[in-house]
């Protein structure tokens, strides 16, 4: 088996691994979507009913909402089976964290596989069919990472609304439970307003962080693309003698300038310390 056929066989094996990992990621993303888009309105209503009976309703039941195909954040056929119809918020959050850790592991595995595929494509050439398919897998990986970040943002927003509503219900229950003077009510109201303002600021900061992460990913993709362009230029230079000689002359001149500049700086530093 010649080296090119061996590289093709390695690339095909990596492609099969990438497909299997991509299917696992789709399944976990559907599960994560079900957990992230829980029905916070029903949860708040249940918390209100619980607070009216028990006095404090911070732990209530929540029904995860199964999103329909029109409003889904993901694009895929079928849906992951939802969890139990009635769950506490702590259970939903625990399952969400577990599913998010699984997706993180699968995404890392897929990224490593795509990097190995790109290494194999360097031997096959940038214009081969394997290189085009590898670029498609890179786009799929980026899309999955963005979907995970969108679900994380949605879950965090719903969680913040739930916790804020639960704290308000708890405060109302405490005020109904005993006599409270006007000063205490005013203080509680001020604290609640401050909490709302702080929560709004945190949500804004989280949004800015999400934008920064997206910008970082785009810059990383641009850097990888420029690296690929540089590899293509070097590949072309190896086959064209004139371009190869030109690149060699540019490199020699650059090294010469570095040597001259280093000598001048060393002389200036010596004179500076000598006359100091």
Automatic annotation (TrEMBL):
Molecular-function annotations in GO: SNAP receptor activity
Cross-referenced InterPro entries: Golgi_SNAP_su1 (IPR023601)
Membrane topology: Single-pass type IV membrane protein
Protein localization: Golgi apparatus membrane
Family: Belongs to the GOSR1 family.
Main location: Golgi
Biological processes per GO annotation: endoplasmic reticulum to Golgi vesicle-mediated transport; inter-Golgi cisterna vesicle-mediated transport; protein transport; vesicle fusion
Transmembrane region(s): 258-275
The name this protein goes by in its record: Putative Qb-SNARE protein
Compositionally biased tracts (Low complexity): 48-63
Positions of the UniProt region annotated as Disordered: 48-89
Keywords: Coiled coil, Golgi apparatus, Membrane, Protein transport, Transmembrane, Transmembrane helix, Transport
Stretches assigned to coiled coil: 202-229
Species of origin: Leishmania major
GO-annotated cellular components: cis-Golgi network; Golgi apparatus; Golgi medial cisterna; Golgi membrane; SNARE complex
